[in-house]
Design brief:
Strand content: 15-25%
Helix content: 40-55%
Radius of gyration: 23 Å
Structural class: alpha+beta
Strand order of the largest sheet: 5-4-6-7
Oligomer: single chain
Shape: elongated
Number of domains: 2
């Protein structure tokens, strides 16, 4: 059951991503030859007016195959015949649709279960927060220059800024104040902690608050993804801390097992959260300026806009091939790490 749910989630996110490419390509009058769900050997398909909608054996992946995308074509409706702005928007649409999907489902979450405000429920004795004079019922609204809307953001911020002095802005009895707090190192968790507890009480807002907090939810997930990447490159995290499809399937399975005892509604909300998380993550990762990813192609289009010169087809293919090889090598490494974690 866990594997089936994970496959459905992956497939849904990827289909929505590729649908972004597809719909904008159609808007720009680009011929789409095939819309693939999955990779590997073809299982079956339906031929549309000009597009072949097909399902393939391997459930992880998909593609929107456009005329003239990877090679020259004499067709006036080929991808390469379009203006650089049209090509840019077609490629950008994939990650954009991931963010749209994350936002829409975040709205569903806000309506269904609400959110946990960044309100302190308990201050640990002799902690950094205790020394700074923070109290229960204080609501934290800013950590340095980072605006806080959810309790989880307190934990994330201290994780990504270990040991740093933090200007904590909070609201107490309707009045806003700021104190300087230096998180203390906790030997048990091996992390720097503020020394506050909370996140167990949820709030539900009016329609405007639902929409705004859905935006904040997507912003939080983008922030977590970007800061995790930063820590990966600066040594705060290692490749061993990364997870690929195997690891994500396990996380989804564990989430399902932990929530099933609370009923179907709890499972549905948790799975929606997983889609929001993974979709926002995929949107960010695809925008990285790495060849073979959407972000790498966007960099070439920006260069073309600036120089008004289109890179040669050979150069672009070589760059994308090199990026593809690097990504495959990284995927094998991460997948091997996931399998090792399962065995150990």
């Amino acid at each position: 059951m866990n594997i089936i749910i994970a496959i459905l989630i992956f497939s849904f996110i990827i289909i929505f991503h590729e649908f972004g490419h597809f719909i904008v390509a159609k808007m720009c009058d680009v011929r789409v030859n095939e819309f693939m769900v999955g990779l590997g050997p073809r299982l079956f398909g339906i031929k549309g007016k000009e597009t072949d909608f097909s399902v393939h054996l391997l459930p992880f992946g998909g593609a929107c195959v456009m005329e003239g995308e990877e090679s020259d074509s004499d067709d006036d409706r080929s991808f390469q015949k379009k203006t650089v702005w049209q090509r840019f928007m077609i490629v950008f649409a994939g990650p954009l649709f991931n963010f749209i999907l994350a936002f829409v489902l975040a709205v569903v979450m806000m309506i269904g279960i609400g959110y946990a405000p960044a309100k302190i429920e308990k201050v640990i004795d002799n902690s950094a927060a205790f020394d700074a004079g923070l109290k229960a019922d204080d609501e934290i609204v800013k950590l340095n220059n980072y605006n806080v809307h959810f309790y989880d953001e307190i934990r994330y911020y201290t994780l990504f800024h270990p040991g740093e002095k933090i200007n904590v802005t909070y609201v107490r009895d309707g009045k806003k104040d700021t104190v300087k707090v230096t998180p203390k190192y906790d030997k048990e968790t091996k992390r720097y902690m503020l020394g506050v507890a909370g996140g167990t009480k949820v709030a539900k807002g009016n329609p405007i608050q639902v929409v705004s907090h859905a935006c904040y939810q997507v912003k939080e997930l983008i922030y977590v993804t970007l800061m995790s990447l930063k820590m990966l490159f600066t040594g705060g995290l290692s490749v061993n801390d990364m997870s690929g499809p195997v690891g994500i399937v396990k996380v989804i399975g564990d989430s399902y097992d932990q929530t099933i005892t609370y009923g179907v509604f709890a499972v549905v909300m948790q799975m929606i959260y997983m889609v929001v998380l993974l979709s926002a993550n995929l949107g960010v990762m695809n925008l990285l300026p790495i060849p073979a990813l959407d972000g790498g192609r966007l960099v070439l289009y920006i260069w073309e806009m600036i120089t008004r010169k289109k890179p040669s087809e050979k150069f672009e293919m070589t760059l994308n091939y090199a990026g593809f090889v690097i990504l495959m090598a990284l995927m094998v490494l991460v997948m091997g790490n996931d399998i090792r974690k399962l065995i150990m």
